[in-house]
Structure to design on (410 residues):
């Protein structure tokens, strides 16, 4: 591809991801969470087949557009589904699965891609959708969706499949689900989300956290990791290897969050993540400022920047990232959860575009250090807001969480 072709083929996936979240949020309330998630398998397979059988720049762009459209379905429906099938005691760990799978994908790209040809890697990626479709086909629909449809028996069957519990325990949870759904029985739109005090508060918290998360440099670092490490002088480890280590650290951070969000709680995880990532990004920016803009000799400390970036990535994927998914499933009513997930997915796409579009111009006109200072300021602003407003939702029912949100002034 030429540079001009690359400039539209790469970001076009975000265009697709921008289009589908809102329709997906509405559809999830009409056809269910499971069918929407299951549909992503065939769509991804079609996108890879387009590349295999019609290899051209135009078809590659079309395939990436289709993948973006499919990503929008995934980002909207999966966090809602996971939050609704999980018990309140394990909701943090269950919803973390979504982003842990995302980090497994990054690690796969980093570790497997360099050793396979273009077509072999395409076949490999396509094949991953087959076990997903076979296994997910047997997953029950969300009990919340069944209750929304008025089918209590199917909701009870779904709960029985997901829980190792007695009939009395299931009945208690089923009554809680019915209470939650009945309180929000009618279909809801975006206006319903922002006109209620708790809905408006929950959405503000979610978007501030998502903004701090994405604009703190996650998207740019994962895309430009090798380039950043390549600019760091005297690295004893090849940049490609450091990038693979980055993928491992992100995955480990996500796995750690699965064990800590329900034991330590959401707020301690969030605060630790924000403080640690702010310090990491600020000192990474300081290192690159001293390296490229002063006469201070710091090139012999080349390990500092990669280590700080790895620490940032681990803290981000163990705190801010999984909590976005957790809060998406916890802060909203059953009939506005899909809409909120859609709005968040759209905003995350916009944040990602902003982060990717600004990286190179800032790097060219101000310097690499300026990007990391911007990331640090973003974390400081978003983290401060969340510190004073984000509720602790560990072990609480959806009704209790709504009551907690009403305590805050909007």
């Amino acid at each position: 591809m030429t540079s001009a072709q690359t400039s539209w083929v790469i970001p076009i996936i975000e265009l697709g991801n921008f289009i589908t979240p809102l329709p997906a949020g509405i559809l999830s309330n009409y056809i269910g969470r499971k069918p929407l998630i299951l549909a992503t398998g065939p769509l991804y397979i079609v996108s890879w087949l387009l590349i295999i059988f019609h290899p051209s720049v135009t078809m590659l762009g079309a395939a990436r557009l289709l993948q973006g459209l499919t990503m929008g379905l995934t980002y909207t429906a999966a966090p809602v589904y996971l939050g609704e099938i999980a018990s309140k005691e394990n909701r943090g760990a269950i919803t973390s699965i979504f982003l842990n799978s995302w980090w497994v994908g990054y690690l796969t790209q980093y570790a497997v891609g360099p050793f396979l040809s273009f077509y072999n890697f395409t076949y490999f990626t396509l094949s991953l959708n087959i076990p997903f479709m076979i296994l997910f086909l047997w997953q029950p629909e969300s009990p919340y969706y069944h209750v929304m449809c008025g089918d209590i028996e199917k909701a009870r069957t779904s709960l029985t499949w997901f829980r190792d519990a007695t009939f009395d325990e299931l009945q208690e949870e089923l009554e809680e689900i019915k209470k939650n759904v009945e309180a929000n029985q009618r279909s809801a739109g975006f206006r319903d989300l922002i006109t209620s005090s708790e809905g408006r508060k929950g959405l503000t918290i979610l978007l501030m956290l998502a903004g701090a998360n994405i604009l703190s440099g996650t998207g740019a670092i994962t895309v430009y990791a090798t380039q950043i490490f390549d600019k760091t002088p005297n690295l004893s480890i090849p940049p490609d290897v450091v990038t693979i280590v980055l993928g491992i650290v992100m995955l480990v951070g996500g796995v750690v969050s699965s064990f800590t969000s329900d034991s330590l709680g959401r707020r301690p995880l969030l605060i630790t993540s924000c403080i640690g990532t702010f310090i990491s990004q600020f000192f990474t920016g300081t290192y690159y400022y001293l390296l490229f803009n002063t006469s201070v000799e710091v090139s012999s400390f080349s390990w500092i920047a990669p280590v700080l970036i790895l620490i940032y990535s681990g803290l981000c994927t163990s705190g801010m990232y999984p909590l976005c998914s957790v809060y998406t499933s916890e802060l909203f009513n059953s009939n506005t959860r899909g809409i909120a997930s859609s709005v968040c997915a759209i905003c995350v796409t916009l944040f990602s575009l902003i982060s990717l579009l600004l990286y190179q111009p800032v790097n060219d006109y101000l310097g690499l250090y300026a990007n990391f200072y911007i990331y640090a300021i973003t974390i400081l602003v978003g983290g401060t807001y969340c510190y004073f407003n984000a509720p602790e939702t560990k072990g609480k029912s959806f009704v209790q969480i709504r009551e907690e949100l009403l305590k805050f002034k909007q």
Summary: The two ends are 50 Å apart (CA to CA). The chain has a mean pLDDT of 84.
